[in-house]
Amino acid sequence: xxxxxxxWYPVSGAVLAGVVWYFxxxxxxxxxxxxxxxxLTLGAILTGFMSTAMTLLVSLHGSEVxxxxxxxxxxxxxxxxxxxxxxxxxxxxxxxIIGLFVDRPNWYGIVWIVFAIGSGLSFIRVTRITxxxxxxx
Length: 137
Hints:
The chain is mainly alpha-helical. It is 83% helix and 0% strand.
């Protein structure tokens, strides 16, 4: 059950945030450009961090920890988590850039919050696992 939760909580949390945003009729603040600029910066930082975490994993090639992860069949999950985190963060940046240049339709806030929460939760998941790999490496 724990692995199932680990696999799906970033996507589930992101979708749940979108549903809550929709039903509670939340809106982006009136200073949307400031929020979107900050979101773009955050998304870029998270994308860079995730890429660095992937580089760290590659640098472990041949290490005992990586061997144990492969033997346990967990390396596939870890690579999927890293990929999801990078794509969520990159998409969050892209959504923020798009919002700076176009008139935002009503559904834009829902898409923005889905990618904001998804990138945040996937960042937390990868960070937690990366710290454990470093600890036991």
